[in-house]
Amino acid sequence: MMFVSRLRNWAEHSVGAAESDDAVVVKTTRYLRLAIVTMVIGLSTAVLYEHSKSHLKGVDSGHCWQHSISAYYYTPVQSVFVGALVAIGISLIALKGSTELEDVFLNFAGILAPVVAFVPTPNVGECGSILTDTTNRGTNISNNVTAVLVMAGVAFLVLGALRALDRPVTGVPGAPAHADEASAHRIAVYGYGLALALYVAAWVVFLADREWFNANAHWSAAITMFVFIWLAVVNNAINFHFTRKKVVAAQHAAEEAGGAKPPKRVNRYLAIALLMPAALVIILATPWFGDYDTIWLEASMIALFAVFWVLQTQELWNHGLRSPDTRTGALQQPQGAEERDAG
Q1: DSSP result, 249-306
Q2: 3-state secondary structure of 176
Q3: 126/292 Cα distance (integer angstroms)
Q4: pTM (2 decimals)?
Q5: Which is higher by pLDDT, 203 or 181?
Q6: Which residues are bridge partners to 325 per DSSP?
Q7: Is residue 214 part of a domain?
Q8: Residue 144 sits in which domain range?
Q9: pLDDT tens-digit readout, 141-180
């Protein structure tokens, strides 16, 4: 009876949210960013572990690499490969961007991630501890892609119905209005329309030409996904620059009034945005990479993708989203980061 009484007392005093709405939002965005980084680490570990156990087909010893990370789908990495891409996709969709454009780019990248997972590359390769074949590839694609398309269709219907009922999923009752709210609304509507158009196109191709879809959907989705990721990085670089510009103006005003001199910060997102296309050009234009140019390119893009999320997680650790704090004139950033980023 003592245990039941304590349990009842605990339940009675645990009613309601444990933290404020702002704290919940900050922690949720923090966890999503950390989850993305964790999934990249997990996928990298699975590939490296498989490499340590690998050998060429027909050879009993020696280590080797597949020609692409996607080809590790046909090795014991398969479960981690699919799970990581699905988890990253969900995280990208759930994570709200600091701008409406970033949110749209992240949503598109997140929508494409499961397609990359469920439509494996047709190239099995000849390296692995154990290699599966493509015997059931077409059957698996038909089942999994149908499930994804139906699921996405339900999501589109729900989003449209909520908008028609004037209860959009992006709306928050009681939230303060912003000056650019109309612009953000237009971007969200255009993003929804473009996503719906691509969704219909995917259904048409999937039903009309299954052979083409099975052969080309993986690389089409993967390339497009990384383009949207790059666009999100570029948008971050631009948003960081102009947010910082407002902050510096406010800090200079505070300095003139006797406050501290504003610290300088390097736009690290711009560096990532420039390194991504640079890696593409260097790897594809350099003969040294040979037949392994694809895996080098994928590895470099994934590494830069992870670095981007590490940087954003660090910058927005205490604030969730980026915005200038006009009251203090300080850019929202993790404690102790000011002096490290001087330059």
Answers
A1: HHHHHHHHTT-PPPPP---HHHHHHHHHHHHHHHHHH-GGGGGGHHHHHHHHHHHHHH
A2: coil
A3: 13
A4: 0.84
A5: 203
A6: 330
A7: yes
A8: 23-171+180-331
A9: 999 999 999 999 999 999 888 888 877 666 666 555 565 6
